């Protein structure tokens, strides 16, 4: 899941990507 890692590294800097990738939400929750 490279998408999750990318989001983790970026820290969800862009809300647009969050909408495009629902997995980002799970990655952010795991990171926090």
Structure description:
The chain is mainly α and 32 residues long. Helix content is 75%, strand content 0%. The longest helix has 9 residues. The model has no long low-confidence stretch (mean pLDDT 59).
Summarize the structure.
With 32 residues, this protein is mostly helical.
Number of helices in the DSSP assignment: 3
**SSE run:** HHH
**Global outline:** globular
- Extended strand count: 0
Q: What is the makeup of the main sheet?
A: none
When the domains are counted, the total is: 1
Helix percent band:
over 70%
| SS class | mainly alpha
| Overall pLDDT score | 59
β-strand amount? under 5%
Which regions have little confidence, pLDDT < 50, spanning 5+ residues? none
Indicate the radius of gyration in whole angstroms. 8 Å
Keywords:
32 residues; mainly alpha; 3 helices; 75% helix; globular
Topology of helices and strands:
Blueprint lengths: L1 H9 L4 H6 L2 H9 L1
Helix pairs in contact: 1-3
